[in-house]
Specification:
The protein is an all-alpha fold. It is built from 3 helices and no strands. Helix 2 runs antiparallel to helix 3. The radius of gyration is 22 Å and the shape is elongated. 1% of the residues are buried.
Length: 131
């Protein structure tokens, strides 16, 4: 369920993904562990990579918006405030977008590192049984 302005903004950006039951990956580990088979992990990495692509596209749109310098519609103080506030909002949105992109890219690196460890561990275990 989405509540409030932030929730409405998320829905406008990503659609109804928060209201649609989706596939839950992994689970089943003991003692706080999280287990996932290689196909599931690859699928999760793909979803994160798709999300990064969307974040980058949004960033390009925000940069285009920032390039359209915000000019006050009039010479009165209220118009000047409007232009200044709009500019500040665009800069904050760009900062937030950059932060989301970096977070998602770092998370993908961690998932890929985990995937590599899984492949190496699986190979080592396979070699043990072959011997």
């Amino acid at each position: 369920m989405i509540i409030g302005e932030a929730g409405q903004a998320a829905r406008a950006l990503w659609g109804d993904v928060f209201d649609t039951p989706g596939r839950v990956y992994g689970g089943g580990g003991k003692g706080g562990q999280f287990k996932m088979d290689p196909e599931e992990l690859s699928a999760v990495i793909g979803q994160w990579e798709d999300l990064v692509d969307k974040i980058v596209e949004d960033g390009q749109k925000i940069r285009e918006l920032a390039a359209l310098s915000t000019v006050a519609p009039g010479k009165d103080p209220a118009s000047g405030n409007f232009a200044s506030t709009s500019s500040d909002s665009i800069i904050a949105l760009l900062t937030q977008n950059d932060s989301m992109r970096k977070y998602a890219q770092d998370y993908i690196k961690k998932l890929k590192a985990a995937q590599s460890k899984t492949v190496v561990t699986d190979q080592d275990l396979s070699d043990t049984f072959k011997a």
